[in-house]
Amino acid sequence: MKHSQECFLSSMSIWTKLAITLTLSAISVVLFLHYRNISRKRCMWAMLLSTIGDLFMTNIIGIPKGMELMSTIIGAAFFGVAHILYATCFDGMRKEKDIPIKGVGLLVGLVAVFGTWVALLVVMLTKSSFKPVMFPLISLYLVAIGVNVVNVCIYSFGAKRWNLLNAFGVIVFLVSDILIFLEMLAEIPTREYVWYVYPFGQLFLLLFNTPLSKRGEEYTALYCKCDMKP
To answer: Average pLDDT of 49-61?
Structure first.
């Protein structure tokens, strides 16, 4: 049974991963073209940058031997920017709906982020295979995804209903990153699980948020502090 499970988890080819990430990017583009507002534009760019990050982190582009760590760092940089874009998207929607920065959403986001950092710290202290040089890099990346997690959770729990699926999506996204962290930090073989988790995080972030106005006039007026045209 264990052998069969390992075969299944390692069976996803690079081309399947490429097809998944390109499909997610295509979905983000279609959503932007339909709604054409700043919210969807930022989500689209976040997904497109994530796809570039995927190219580096999954070796789709054929990374030379010995450059795997550098490739992972470059990929993580693209994902870091993507997380900030997602965060600004959901923060903008929060402001439009006048959702306060407090409550269950803030608590869930902070617990998820700090809980992750503490768990990684425990790994550092208990695993003999731990790589100390990776901890500062992962902590820096965790700041970017942490900002995203907190903003998405605040908006999701404030807007409620199906928007709560956004919070589920960003937590799933965080879990997929944790699987990568564990392998990078302590050579725990969890990276093969990532692609059975990560796509759902992206999909839930892209699909299950309440769209702003079709052309985004209200959102623009909010930030320009100007009167909306009738």
So the answer is: 85
Whether pTM exceeds 0.70: yes
Closest CA to 116 of 57, 36, 171: 171
8 A C-beta contact, residue 25 and residue 51: yes
- The CB-side HSE value for 180 (13 A sphere, CA atoms) comes to 25
pLDDT tens string 168-212:
999 999 999 999 888 888 888 888 899 999 999 999 999 887 654
The CA–CA distances, whole Å, from 70 to 56, 66, 86, 121 equal 9, 9, 24, 23
Structure tokens at 98: 């006048």
Q: Label residue 131 left, alpha or beta by phi (over 0 means left) and psi (-120 to 50 means alpha).
A: beta
- Going from N- to C-terminal start, the domains of the chain cover 2-209
Distance CA 104, CA 165 (A): 15
Is the Cβ–Cβ distance between 37 and 214 less than 8 Å? yes
Angstrom CA distances, 132 to 21, 141, 175, 179, stand at 31, 15, 21, 17
